[in-house]
From TrEMBL:
InterPro entries: cAMP-dep_PK_reg_su-like (IPR050503), cNMP-bd_CS (IPR018488), cNMP-bd_dom (IPR000595), cNMP-bd_dom_sf (IPR018490), RmlC-like_jellyroll (IPR014710). GO terms for cellular component: cAMP-dependent protein kinase complex; cytosol. GO terms for molecular function: cAMP binding; cAMP-dependent protein kinase inhibitor activity; protein kinase A catalytic subunit binding. CDD domains: CAP_ED. It comes from the Eukaryota. This is Cyclic nucleotide-binding domain-containing protein. Gene3D superfamilies: Jelly Rolls. PROSITE patterns: CNMP_BINDING_1, CNMP_BINDING_2, CNMP_BINDING_3. Pfam families: cNMP_binding.
Length: 465
């Protein structure tokens, strides 16, 4: 795994580069330069008093990892958290990449805060340099009380450039028709937030035209800076994904697998804007192309009213879930906005008896059978007036499923929430249900904290629990 660079940082001088010998790399000398100055720039540590920074610097342990090394593994017990000094790291849950961490990001603290197993695997994408703080030092310095660890998954890594927004371009009748048709046939948009004519017109009106030279990577897989949605006016773009996680960037590019082509009348880039997720694929211009661009802020603003109205409908379902009865109104709204709609076919098993529970379901259309030990116990049916819920204890504990849920209607539709997402939004449900009745919402404090803008750069953090 990682190469230990510093056996004891307690004697390190804050502003003097200290040579470290990497005993696992053939005694290669490594310079660990000014950890105190670097840590002082990490937003997480801004609350510490100036006099506490040297102590923090001396408490940390410098650790490096080679590309492909696992820093922490999902399910393991944690005894340290890490701050990235340089390099990139992949965040994977159940083997699937969900984020990319960069310089200034931190991870692993939830294992110290709550004594929980690691909820994700962190793997070095490139050579990775980190500062590691052990559980003992974490407790000794009182970091649990001194630092503000948000429970929500935030956006981005390190510093981001301000979003560039250009004035809308003039559009001919033919160009407008192409854009309208592209938006209407984008299944991801239509399934998440149905677009009426008014919303489509607003998106078309706001778009500007750009030319894209051949070979340009307009989107890069894993990038968290998802700023734009694109509609292709002219030309072709290849869509490719890496075959394997943990490779060097050169190896990943060589192993990239083409999964499709987007040509005139197609669109891409919506998923990362809708779900605040890393880009799922690399999009490269196969020839000189022309695209229409909509920026993230406009995209989200136009869709917000539709999303809010849908969330209000979902809240009605959540109000009937006894396990969620102690959630505050704004907390239920946050959960409602994170629900995912899934469709199932007749005979499909939504989950099986005995498997580990990870998702909670609200059946909003169709009928399912509850089967235990091979025998049907009852049926659940969703109507226009009443939804049916099942699997809600998965939000509390990952205990084995007590029964199999099988679709008996021709089709069924359910809203789904997984425990990892729920915990990222609000924190553990067990803690929420232990609160006193007059306790404030866990979102109140977060909503009061604004991103700090310095020199035209907005600072954000990614929290990996």
């Amino acid at each position: 795994m990682g190469a230990l660079l510093c056996k004891d940082c307690s004697h390190a001088q804050e502003d003097v580069p200290q040579p470290r010998v990497d005993s696992r790399a053939g005694g290669r000398p490594v310079v660990d330069s000014q950890p105190g100055k670097f840590l002082a720039q990490v937003k997480l540590f801004k609350r510490l008093r100036e006099g506490e920074m040297p102590a923090l610097a001396s408490a940390c342990e410098a650790v490096s990892f080679k590309a492909g090394d696992e820093v922490i593994r999902e399910g393991d017990n944690g005894d340290a958290f890490f701050v990235i000094r340089s390099g990139d790291a992949i965040v994977a849950v159940a083997g699937k990449q969900v984020a990319l961490l960069k310089e200034g990001d931190y991870f692993g603290e939830n294992a110290l805060l709550r004594d929980e197993p690691r909820t994700a695997t962190i793997r070095a994408k490139s050579e990775l340099w980190t500062y590691k703080i052990s559980r003992a030092k974490f407790e000794e310095m009182g970091l649990r009380e001194k630092l503000d660890f948000p429970q929500r998954k935030a956006v981005g890594g390190g510093a981001m450039k301000q979003l560039e927004v250009k004035p809308p371009s003039e559009k001919s009748a033919e160009e407008r028709k192409l854009m309208v048709d592209a938006l209407k046939k984008n299944d991801n948009l239509q399934s998440c937030v149905p677009l009426d004519d008014s919303k489509i017109t607003q998106l078309v009106d706001a778009a500007w035209k750009e030319t894209v030279p051949i070979g340009t990577e307009i989107i890069k897989e894993g990038d968290l800076s998802a700023d734009y949605f694109y509609i292709v006016q002219q030309g072709k773009f290849s869509i490719s994904v890496s075959k394997k996680e943990g490779q060097s960037s050169d190896a990943a590019q060589a192993a990239a697998q083409n999964i499709g082509v987007v040509s005139a009348g197609g669109s891409f880039g919506e998923l990362a804007l809708l779900y605040v997720a890393p880009r799922a694929a690399t999009v490269r211009a196969l020839e000189a192309a022309v695209v229409w661009v909509v920026d993230r802020k406009t995209f989200k603003t136009v869709l917000a009213k539709s999303a809010d109205s849908i969330a209000k409908e979902y809240i009605k379902y959540l109000d009937k879930v006894q396990l969620l009865s102690k959630l505050k109104p704004d907390e239920k709204e946050a959960v409602a906005k994170a629900l995912t709609e899934m469709s199932f076919s007749k005979g499909e098993e939504i989950f099986q008896q005995g498997e580990q529970g990870e998702d909670f379901y609200i059946l909003v259309d169709g009928e399912v059978a509850v089967v235990k030990d091979g025998s049907e116990q009852t049926k659940l049916k969703a109507t226009a007036a009443q939804a049916s819920m099942f699997g809600e204890r998965a939000l509390l504990t990952k205990e084995p499923r007590a029964a199999t849920i099988r679709v008996t209607s021709e089709a069924a539709k359910a809203l789904v929430m997984d425990k990892v997402t729920f915990d990222m939004i609000l924190g553990p449900l067990e803690d929420l249900n232990k609160r006193s009745q007059d306790a404030p919402s866990v979102l109140t404090k977060k909503n009061e904290v604004k991103p700090k803008v310095e020199g035209g750069a907005e600072s954000f953090e990614i929290l990996v629990q």
